[in-house]
């Protein structure tokens, strides 16, 4: 009866302690594939035994008392009797089987060990999920496929012979086209034999384009010549008729420009003098950049979430963790290591790091560990 209650408690609890004997601990096992048997196994619970968990937490005794409607003292006596029976069976037969859970026995060093027997799936979320066998898909025989394709194709009617008149008309058109092509070719050949005719010179397009190009070239040459003559003549007339007053006007304009430039320089110097007397602007302190990479030994204890062979992948993971408000860092590989480790937090002592592990396991899972750099 105690065995039945132990199995029932393992469905809903991760640990069931048998007073003065030990504790049964459950562990989640994900779905897995058997490549040899081609089977898919659903998620389940695997049970382990720890003989150091002998302190009574009252779970088993309270369950038995409530189920049998008895007092806790009577339930405790039932558990003690069950433990006494287990120990006596182990001394006599060297083994004791807990139904649908596992087998207790002594090894060659006379230490109590537990072997889990995979019976009923103790994970409630996988209740009713069987083990699935994947059968290979066999292709159909080629001969059968050819037969099916041939049967499905519609039968095409045999084309009937065309009448004689239609075939004769088609042959007449082909012969007429060939005869016309031969006559045109012969005429062109006879013309090409005449020495007085040049076929290329008879092309009207080339004649028109040639004449137009020649006329354009002549017009351009005449225009350039006329412009050069006009430029030379106007230059000579300007040199002869330039009065002396023009030179004086240019000198006056140059002096005015120099005076304006000097005034602007004096104004700029005055402005500079005023700006020097102004109160200095306070400089804004720029915060120091946050260090995201740790190289070398520093003696601190880091909580590591994963390791990567490439720095780029580690930096991507660090940025994802930093978006949730954690001070993530990347630890460069040390001597004898090739992995870039990503940490979510660091502490000065190992006790502080171990104390914070439970908090970070809620966000990053059970695979995180403490690393002493």
TrEMBL record:
<feature type="domain" description="SPOR">
    <location>
        <begin position="295"/>
        <end position="373"/>
    </location>
</feature>
<dbReference type="Pfam" id="PF05036">
    <property type="entry name" value="SPOR"/>
</dbReference>
<dbReference type="GO" id="GO:0042834">
    <property type="term" value="F:peptidoglycan binding"/>
</dbReference>
<dbReference type="Pfam" id="PF18175">
    <property type="entry name" value="HU-CCDC81_bac_2"/>
</dbReference>
<keyword id="KW-0472">Membrane</keyword>
<keyword id="KW-1133">Transmembrane helix</keyword>
<feature type="transmembrane region" description="Helical">
    <location>
        <begin position="171"/>
        <end position="191"/>
    </location>
</feature>
<dbReference type="InterPro" id="IPR036680">
    <property type="entry name" value="SPOR-like_sf"/>
</dbReference>
<dbReference type="Pfam" id="PF18174">
    <property type="entry name" value="HU-CCDC81_bac_1"/>
</dbReference>
<protein>
    <submittedName>
        <fullName>Sporulation related protein</fullName>
    </submittedName>
</protein>
<dbReference type="InterPro" id="IPR041268">
    <property type="entry name" value="HU-CCDC81_bac_2"/>
</dbReference>
<keyword id="KW-0812">Transmembrane</keyword>
<dbReference type="InterPro" id="IPR007730">
    <property type="entry name" value="SPOR-like_dom"/>
</dbReference>
<dbReference type="InterPro" id="IPR040495">
    <property type="entry name" value="HU-CCDC81_bac_1"/>
</dbReference>
């Amino acid at each position: 009866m105690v065995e039945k209650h132990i199995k029932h408690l393992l469905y809903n609890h991760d640990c069931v302690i048998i007073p003065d004997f030990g504790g049964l601990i459950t562990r989640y096992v994900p779905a897995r594939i058997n490549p040899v048997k081609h089977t898919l196994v659903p998620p389940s619970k695997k049970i382990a035994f720890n003989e150091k968990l002998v302190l009574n937490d009252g779970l088993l005794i309270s369950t038995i008392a409530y189920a049998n409607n008895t007092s806790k003292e009577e339930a405790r006596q039932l558990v003690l009797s069950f433990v006494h029976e287990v120990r006596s069976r182990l001394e006599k037969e060297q083994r004791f089987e807990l139904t649908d859970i596992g087998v207790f026995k002594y090894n060659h060093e006379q230490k109590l060990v537990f072997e889990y027997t995979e019976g009923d799936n103790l994970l409630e979320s996988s209740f009713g999920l069987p083990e699935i066998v994947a059968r290979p898909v066999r292709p159909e025989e080629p001969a059968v496929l050819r037969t099916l394709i041939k049967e499905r194709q519609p039968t095409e009617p045999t084309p009937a012979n065309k009448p004689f008149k239609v075939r004769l008309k088609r042959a007449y058109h082909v012969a007429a086209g060939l005869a016309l092509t031969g006559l045109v070719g012969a005429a062109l050949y006879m013309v090409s034999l005449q020495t007085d005719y040049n076929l290329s010179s008879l092309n009207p397009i080339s004649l028109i384009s040639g004449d137009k190009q020649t006329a354009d070239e002549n017009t351009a040459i005449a225009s350039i010549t006329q412009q050069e003559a006009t430029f030379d003549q106007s230059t000579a007339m300007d040199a002869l008729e330039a009065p002396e007053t023009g030179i004086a006007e240019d000198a006056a304009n140059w002096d005015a420009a120099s005076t304006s430039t000097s005034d602007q320089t004096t104004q700029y110097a005055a402005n500079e003098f005023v700006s020097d007397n102004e109160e200095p602007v306070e400089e804004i302190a720029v915060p120091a950049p946050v260090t995201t990479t740790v190289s070398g030994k520093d003696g601190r204890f880091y909580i590591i979430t994963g390791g990567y062979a490439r720095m780029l992948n580690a930096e991507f993971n660090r940025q994802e963790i930093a978006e949730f408000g954690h001070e993530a860092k990347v630890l460069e590989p040390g001597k004898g290591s090739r992995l870039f480790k990503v940490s979510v937090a660091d502490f000065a002592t190992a006790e502080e790091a171990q104390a914070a592990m439970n908090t970070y396991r809620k966000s990053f899972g059970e695979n995180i560990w403490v690393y002493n750099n």
